[in-house]
Structure formats: C-alpha cells, structure tokens
Amino acid sequence: MSKGFRPDTICVQAGWNPKKGEPRVLPIYQSTTFKYDTTEEMGRLFALEDEGYFYTRLQNPTNDAVAEKIAQLEGGVAAMLTSSGQAANFYTIANLCQAGDHIVCSAKVYGGTFNLYAATIRKLGIECTFVDPDAPAEEIDAAFRPNTKAVVGETIANPALTVLDIEKFAALAHAHGVPLIVDNTFATPINCRPFLFGADIVTHSTTKYMDGHAMAVGGCIVDSGNFDWDAYADKFPGLTTPDETYHGVVYTKQFGKKAFITKATAQLMRDLGSIPSPMNSFLLNVGLETLPLRVEKHCSNAKKTAEFLKGHEKVEFVNCAMLEGDRYYETARKYMPSGTCGVLSFGLKGTKEDAVRFMDSLKLCAIVTHVADARTCVLHPASHTHRQMNDEQLREAGVTPGMIRLSVGIENPQDIIEDLAQALEQV
Ligand SMILES: *Cc1c(COP(=O)(O)O)cnc(C)c1O
Fold first, then answer.
1. pLDDT for the residue 48
2. Is the CB of residue 361 less than 8 Å from the CB of residue 177?
3. What's the farthest any 2 CA atoms get from each other in the chain?
4. Average pLDDT over all residues of the chain
5. How far is the CA of 375 from the centre of ligand 1 (A)?
6. Closest residue (by CA) to atom 2 of ligand 1?
C-alpha cells in the first residue's frame, strides 16, 4: 500500500502488501530462520549490504509489517517493535547514550520508566534529571548539561494524566542540539502525532490501546527521521562514527534518515534481544485494525463518565483533560483536539477505607493492574501501587487516600456509570 493514506485506512491496510495469490491477512512467520541459496547471498546480509531476513532476533516479516504500520501511523520513517514498552524506552536511551551521558526527563512519567531512568540506567553510568513538566521553560533549561543527549516526556502521563507541552519541550531539546523523545502510549497516534509538534522519536507500550484487548505485552520505537545527527556529530558518535562491530559502518552515512532505527536493530537488538514473538505482533496487528474505532469510543465513554463523577456529591475531584476547567484542558485541546484517552482519575471524599468499600462494591468495573484495554478497570493507588506509603507520603506523591484510577472501557457508558453509581452509594 502506498503512503499518504489517512490513519483509519493505515490501521486496516498498511504494512502487509500481499502479491498475487498470497494471504490477504498478515501471516505469522513463526520461524527463527530464513533460507538462502548461496554463501554469498547470506554474506551480503551479514554485511548489511543487502536487505533481507536471516534471523528473527534481527528481523521478521510479521514483526516488520506491524512496525511499518505504526511508523506510517505516527508519520515516521522507520520503526522497531520490542517485547515490551519498557524495552522500547530502554533501547531508545541506549541507542543515544553511553556511560558519562545524561538525559532530562519529565518527572510525571510511568513508574516503570521512572525506575528505569532514576536507578537502572544510572548503574550503567547514564544520569537522569527529572523536571516538573509544567515548570517555565527557563527552569527546565537549567537541567541541561554539556553531556545531555536526550529529553523525554509522555504525551499523557500514566497515571498522573498531565499533558505534555510538546512544543515547549521540543524547543528546549533542539536549543541544546538533542532530540525530544515522546512516549505516546496513552494518546496513540489516533489522537496525537507528536512529530507534528517537533518530537523526534516516539515510543509506545503497545500493551495498552494499540493491542487494546490485554492480550500481548509489547513496545515500539518510531523515528521521525527529522533529527540531524550529523549536525551534532560530536554528541552522537554511535550514529556518526564507524561501528567496528559491523565492519565499520557509519549509520548516518549508509542509512540516512533510517540511521537511528537501523542502529537500534543492528546493534541493540542483536546484542540485547528483546524482540516480540511473531504471534504477539500478529495479535497487535489485529488490535491496530480497530484502534481508531476503539479510541473514539474510549474517549466518549471517559468524557461521559468524568462528567457523571464531577457532578457527584461524594466525589472530591476528577482528573480528565477532556473536561472543561481541567488544568490540562487547553493543552489537550491543542495537541489532542479529538480527545485524550479513556484513563481518568478521581478522588472520593472520605478515608482510604471508604475507597476500599467503593472498590469492593463494583460489579462491572474490574480491579486490575492493567489500563487501556476494552474492559473497564479500576485501581486504588493507596492500596495497590502506592501501598507502602502513609497518608502524608501519599499526598506528597500526588495521590490522595481516596484517589481511584479508572480506565474506562468500550462497554455501554450507561452500564459503566450505573455500576459506579451503585458503588458510590455503598460509601
Ligand atoms: C505501560 C507503560 C509503559 C511500559 O510498558 P510495558 O509494555 O508494560 O513494558 C511505558 N510507558 C507508559 C506510558 C506506559 O503506560
């Protein structure tokens, strides 16, 4: 399929272009290896001189078709699938940084990303400074160092639900000659395409809305192809100087706009190996086909649910950027005019015990750690993700004892609201 189609068409058809007599549906190439006729043919693949499949850790037709679909959805030049969102975020940093380097990251990011950047990459010699994403540009600017190599944020933060001012972050990153990486998991490219606002690289936990059915953990890295690595060659030697582990290839010279993803595949995937199974990529592809329909329904259901909660006497506050008056309403309108996502949070008036009674009274909304799939689910941070903290520590972390995280599914909105209403009556 040629490029240039609209997102809903890309979701259904991009990535897999069957020729005469081939399967209409993307096949699951459940094969680790691929056959060649001559020694020379395979040799050229190892030399990165020819494109072709030889080992699934490096490339697999099912995985590549789905990566191509996501690249088109984001408006990027190339993408790589990973076995999880965590792997995508780790590889993105590992592809740019080495020991002695530094990154700047929004403090409002997914807990797993926070640990990865605060603790794990630190052990590898890469430091991270966390910044308040809502702080004025000058304040964030002060976090940069000469060895800073990237800036990171989430379009809609999980679970804080803050909305990133992408243009502000892109301007800061570019003023320092480094790329902006945006984790676009919650918004999905249906609601936001960060490349249009200056982001250079996008990552995803495809585990969430892209899969959408809570079936397969996965991740993806997409490169816009816009960042000029050669203009800042000293900062990014991994991309601009010979890779001795690949016969001295210089990624920017040989692969141009696809340098970043080619390096991530040829070097990081080769050495670290967090690939998705072709079966999981197949499931992800099925999810992607209906992504636009589901995202629209998630958003309209979440908005109705947020409006109901906002008007309820037992509810103290609601965080949902689609609600007028929300702190992020204007920012969300700018970056996500069709809606944000199905995840919202709200605070019950009362104690932690009241929240527990509410949770345990729900019948349709399930208590699940996951978010962003078809089924409505809830989590009580004070009892679950933030269980070890006392009330004072909870407030410091921005979590109130009565706060509930609600991932609104695609059921009938009235059924979701009625379930919440009967559980609120028990409080
Ligand atoms: C879930 C999530 C991740 C981690 O993804 P996994 O697929 O669980 O490894 C990263 N970023 C965001 C925003 C997420 O919601």
1. 77
2. no
3. 74
4. 95
5. 18
6. 205
Q: What H or E segment, with its residue span, contains residue 61?
A: helix 61-74
Where does residue 39 rank: exposed (0-12), middle (13-18), buried (19+ CB within 10 A)?
Answer: exposed
| Of 206, 245, 243, residue with least CA distance to 222 | 206
Distance CA 337, CA 399 (A): 28
Is 86 a pocket residue for ligand 1 (Cβ < 6 Å)?
A: yes
Q: In angstroms, rounded to a whole number, what is the distance separating the alpha carbons of residues 99 and 398?
A: 32
Structure tokens, 283 = 């499931």
Task: Out of 108, 117, 207, give the residue to mutate to test ligand 1, the one with the largest number of ligand atoms within 8 Å of its CB.
Answer: 207
* Phi, psi (deg, nearest 5) at residue 175: -65, -25
Is residue 2 pLDDT above 70, yes or no? no
List strands edge to edge, sheet with 403-407. 315-319, 343-348, 403-407, 377-379, 366-367
Q: Ligand 1 centre and the CA of 51: distance in Å?
A: 31
- pLDDT tens for each residue of 40-56: 998 888 887 888 898 99
Quick check: CB of 208 below 6 Å from ligand 1?
yes
